[in-house]
Amino acid sequence: MNKTVAKSLADGRRSGHKMKAYPGDAPETKGQALELQQAVNIELGWQPIGWKIACTSRRAQEALKTEGPFPGRLFAERQFSSGQKVPTEADNFRVTEPEIVFRMGRSLPPRGRPYDTDEALAAVDAVHPGLEIVNPRLPKGFDDVVEWYIADGALNDAIVIGPPSRPLPRQDYARIQAIAQRNGMVVGTGAGANALAGPEIVLTWLANDLSARGLPLEAGSIVTTGVITEMFSANAGDEITATFAGIGEVSARF
User: Where are the alpha helices (DSSP H) in the chain?
Assistant: First the structure.
């Protein structure tokens, strides 16, 4: 893996600005892209707090021209509580995604057989309303190959977390209704089922994706499960609020 490429991507993420040029050739496979993502994380040196799963909705898959999800790390340096101001740069996209977020109460270590959904949910100790902020940093933005999206941290910029609630019965997650507002005007609606048929399915996918690569889903991790409303962008000065039936509200200012 080219350390120079990893360092350039890490520098780009650290600065928050759009990169003016590509640091090298794109990874040729998803596996190479995931290896580069990990190398970037090491170069970045930030504190990991969990995972995002990108492209769990059909809308997101169509927008990024991919047929399935992929993971990326979340970091403490870009985690915010509901109501906080999220610092961004003028050239950022600020795509804001209402998402259902799990917090793991115990670890799911790698093993030889897949986890089922009941096992994954049994390891959860809280569920939160969340807003993920997405910002592609490479020159072509949202018009790139998926391998670059993966290498560039699955396009994560920040995560905003609302107050915790107790876990719900398995059948309730897909039914959760969400409404997103920008400066008091509705900009998106959706249901939990829009993310791989339900956020509990997304969580299970991540546990098994990590396990297949010899990685644990660690206790204390947060897992944000993908946008369930229409995708929309925010401008500097905007306030975004997302309300999720049964699990509460989260807001962010830019």
Answer: 3-15, 30-44, 58-64, 117-122, 146-151, 199-212
